[in-house]
Amino acid sequence: EDVSLQGYQHYMLKEIFEQPESLRNAMRGRFDDENATSVFGGLNLTPQQMRGVRRIILTGCGTSWHSALVGEYLIEQYARLPVSVEYASELRYRNPPIENDTLVFGLTQSGETADTLAALLETKRKGHRTLAICNVIGSSIAQAADGGIYLHAGPEIGVASTKAYTSQCCVLAMLALHLGRLHNLSFEAGQQLISALKQAPGAVQEALHCNEQVRQVAAKYKDASNILYLGRQLNFPTALEGALKLKEISYIHAEGYPAAEMKHGPIALVDAQTPSVFIVPQGSTYEKVIANMEEVKARGGPIIAVASKDDPHVEAIADDVIHLPDVDPLIQPMVNVIPLQLFSYHIALMRGCDVDKPRNLAKSVTVE
Ligand code: G6P
């Protein structure tokens, strides 16, 4: 065990720090620079078939469902194709209308999640083409699907998913580029997205430098009973994922919410004992999120902000600011989640929790 931990105290920490490498592996050999697009060997679809796709369904469970939400945003933004995200456990029984030109993707680290497998088999039975975005090669879901994309993230042992999540975000960003280039995305725009994607491993490496600062912030808030995670647009799935990580391994109740939706309920929870984590990088809704932060501050809630480097506005409002590199929106989900993974890790450790094997949870849920 010690050998594979490679000096790290836990698999989760090792896997968090492996992310620059796992992202490189997700992208390796998958760019076609001449055509400013990405290529996937295993989709088993011709460019004509791929171009004929009019709608995408993304399904999965847990953290994989969060990456699906990231995929929804990116594919709609860059490929202008409508995307629906479904909990696999709901999709398998819901019987929604699915048109012939819809492509169904199952997202899964393990490839063994019973609900995701059942949802894919049910859509396949109805004659739809089903694909997998999966980490474990040769797993049940990889075999059941008509094709797919492997993450190549390497074994993920910690029960709380970390590197598989960022690799899913990466593959979905590449898929958005691929679909975009079959539709409206120009050659130049394709080149820009490739260059942004290639910056992801370096930006994640830089984000990992916040580890010691995050540990100090974690020490300050480790005794909280409730923590809110708030972000907008592309940062909303990041808020959900941050909250899930904290619940999973530290057993602190946490909720992820779209920051503006907070005023319709969660703001009632805000008091001096309930910190809010705001994900507030530069971008389209930046000023709106700042306004949401002011609302929390006015009610006496402590604020931890995950923000772009050198942001005096956020500094002036938040109690603690974790600074991240300012990156293209396409790769923000991979970068912005890093301090949230580390935050949950340090809090869990300080509370004496079993980080790699949290109570009541399993790495892959093979029963319904
Ligand atoms: C379990 C794990 C989660 C994971 C989910 C989906 O609940 O504890 O970390 O996100 O299953 O797993 P999958 O392997 O399908 O991505």
TrEMBL record:
The active site is at residue 363. It catalyses: D-fructose 6-phosphate + L-glutamine = D-glucosamine 6-phosphate + L-glutamate. The keyword Cytoplasm applies. GO terms for biological process: carbohydrate metabolic process; fructose 6-phosphate metabolic process; protein N-linked glycosylation; UDP-N-acetylglucosamine metabolic process. Residues 45-185, 217-358 form the SIS domain. Keywords: Aminotransferase, Cytoplasm, Glutamine amidotransferase, Repeat, Transferase. One of its GO terms (cellular component) is cytosol. It is an enzyme of class 2 (transferase). It is found in: Cytoplasm. Its EC number is 2.6.1.16. One of its GO terms (molecular function) is carbohydrate derivative binding. Homodimer. Catalyzes the first step in hexosamine metabolism, converting fructose-6P into glucosamine-6P using glutamine as a nitrogen source. This is Glutamine--fructose-6-phosphate aminotransferase [isomerizing]. It comes from Stieleria bergensis. The chain holds residues 251 to 618 of 618 of the full protein.
